[in-house]
User: Which sequence fits this backbone?
């Protein structure tokens, strides 16, 4: 079969954009921590690019998209890319090479566990992190991809998630919250972000890459691709301005960091709905994301949860909120492959979205907490107070981000 060169070229670009998001996340997180912990947080993102790709080749892709075992996980028929050839087509509806789809989905697998790392910044040793990265992918991410995108039980039930509200943001956010509760608070207080310009750079890379993340999830070029692209920017922009206004009201000043954080909250929230709702509803989703996620972080601060870089409030709450908003606002008028939500006469679809979001979140939280407890019996998860005081760049990695 002849490949569609237009769709193939677009998906290669989209794949590259999603790949760029992980370095963007590293810069985003790196700017938020203190000067002594920049490299320690950044390496956790960059190492995922390497190690997750290894796991994806060995078994990840196969467990996500090959066969079906109980509706929960795939099989190992395509482990080590066995039997996959360059001339294989992914789907007759878009005619892109299967290799392109494999690479595109690999980029999602890379960034999802990296999101979690912002929650336990400055507190976790490197070897336990690598163990956690491995088991979390095997027992949380891969099954969730299969259940929602790989022909598993939730997809068959009718749950929709355009680009990863559950698959990426909700489960990563809840894993982050579990890690906060298990690891505990930082012993050494930081003054705050050491480089907001670095955060801005990371935000720009993430926002830019998100077009590939959301628009690319249509897996071809058509009207839904354009809709997802525009919805992504619209929701992010409205969320950013809403957050800025919220900060201006409650903190008395228009905070640049708030503007940046708000945009990420909007991007996370629109992700599951990007290809299923109208542009007008993306405005509503963006505004609600700015308000609700700002409120979640305010609540977190009052409860003194030490989610260092607000992973739960932005990604966990944002991703879950997006799934629920999809249940409200989805319409087949813009995407026949989607569904009608509650506001379009289909309350059953909203219930499915709610059940899936809650179930996935609870599972991700419980597994992540228990996984950290189990890993701690093999290798202590938390760094010593001396290491934390010295800074993890030097104590764990023997390097410094800034020598002067």
Assistant:
């Amino acid at each position: 079969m002849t490949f569609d060169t237009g769709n193939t070229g677009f998906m290669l670009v989209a794949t590259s954009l999603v790949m760029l998001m992980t370095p963007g996340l590293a810069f985003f997180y790196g700017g938020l921590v203190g000067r002594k912990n920049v490299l320690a947080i950044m390496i956790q993102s960059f190492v995922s690019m390497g190690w997750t790709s290894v796991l994806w080749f060995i078994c990840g892709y196969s467990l996500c998209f090959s066969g079906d075992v109980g509706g929960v996980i795939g099989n190992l028929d395509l482990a080590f890319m066995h039997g996959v050839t360059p001339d294989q087509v992914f789907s007759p509806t878009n005619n892109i090479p299967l290799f392109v789809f494999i690479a595109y989905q690999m980029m999602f697998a890379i960034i999802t566990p990296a999101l979690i790392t912002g929650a336990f910044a400055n507190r976790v040793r490197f070897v336990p992190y690598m163990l956690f990265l491995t088991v979390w992918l095997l027992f949380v991410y891969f099954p969730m991809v299969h259940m929602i995108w790989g022909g598993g039980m939730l997809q068959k039930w009718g749950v929709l998630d355009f680009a990863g509200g559950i698959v990426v943001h909700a489960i990563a956010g809840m894993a982050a919250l579990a890690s906060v509760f298990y690891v505990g608070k930082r012993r050494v207080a930081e003054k705050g972000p050491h480089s907001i310009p670095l955060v801005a750079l990371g935000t720009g890379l993430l926002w830019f890459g998100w077009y590939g993340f959301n628009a690319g999830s249509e897996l071809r070029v058509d009207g839904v691709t354009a809709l997802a692209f525009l919805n992504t920017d619209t929701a992010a922009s409205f969320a950013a301005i809403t957050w800025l206004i919220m900060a201006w009201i409650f903190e008395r000043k228009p905070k640049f960091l708030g503007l940046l954080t708000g945009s990420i909250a909007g991007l996370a929230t629109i992700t599951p709905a990007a290809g299923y709702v109208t542009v007008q509803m993306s405005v509503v989703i963006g505004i609600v994301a700015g308000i609700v996620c700002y409120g979640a972080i305010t609540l977190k601060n009052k409860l003194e949860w030490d989610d260092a870089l607000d992973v739960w409030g932005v990604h966990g709450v944002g991703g879950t909120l997006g799934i629920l908003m999809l249940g409200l606002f989805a319409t087949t008028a813009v995407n026949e492959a989607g569904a009608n939500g509650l506001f379009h006469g289909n309350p059953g679809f909203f219930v499915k979205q709610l059940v899936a979001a809650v179930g996935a979140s609870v599972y991700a939280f419980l597994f992540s907490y228990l996984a950290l407890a189990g890993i701690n019996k093999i290798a202590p998860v938390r760094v010593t107070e001396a290491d934390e005081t010295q800074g993890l760049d030097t104590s764990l990695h023997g390097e410094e981000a800034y020598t002067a």
Q: What stands out?
A: The mean pLDDT is 96.
